[in-house]
Amino acid sequence: MPRSVNNVASRRRRKKLLKLTKGYFGARKNVWTVAKNTWEKGQQYAYRDRRAKKRNFRKLWITRINAATRQYGMSYSKFMGNIHQKDIQINRKVLADLAANNPEAFKAIFDAVNK
């Protein structure tokens, strides 16, 4: 019995991946094995960096809040400890935005925390 290969399906699968690598440089866009390896590695980076982005933004927010609280003579950790003691439900993203774009509102929160 002759060997049966599903050329239609395999060609469709390859074309689909080569379409995904459109815009890559050199052989990465049109040589099947190189394109496949490049695309798979890109997917790994994307998965990893979706998580890393969350860490980086949290670091940025903490840095901004720390800079704002130091202007009033307090450290970040003491400020956040006081916020949790007073049971003020405001997250770091909003605090950092207020510290950067609306210092008066941040000062009001700072004063409320440190009564």
At the first level of CATH, the class is Mainly Alpha
Radius of gyration: 26 Å
Number of helices: 5
The low-pLDDT segments are: none
Mean pLDDT: 95
- CATH fold-level name: c-terminal domain of poly(a) binding protein
Give a written overview of the molecule.
By secondary structure, the protein is an all-alpha fold. The protein has one domain (about 25-115): Ribosomal protein L20, C-terminal domain (c-terminal domain of poly(a) binding protein, Orthogonal Bundle), CATH 1.10.1900. It is about 75% helix and about 0% strand. It is built from five helices and no strands. The chain has helices at about 5-20, 30-70, 75-85, 90-100, 105-115. The longest helix is centred in the middle third of the chain and has 40 residues, at about 30-70. The protein is rod-shaped. The N and C termini lie far apart (about 90 Å). The mean pLDDT is about 95.
What are the defining features of this structure?
rod-shaped, 5 helices, mainly alpha, about 120 residues, c-terminal domain of poly(a) binding protein, about 75% helix
Short recap of the structure:
The chain is mainly alpha-helical. It has five helices and no strands. Helix 2 crosses helix 4 and helix 4 (92-101) crosses helix 5 (103-113).
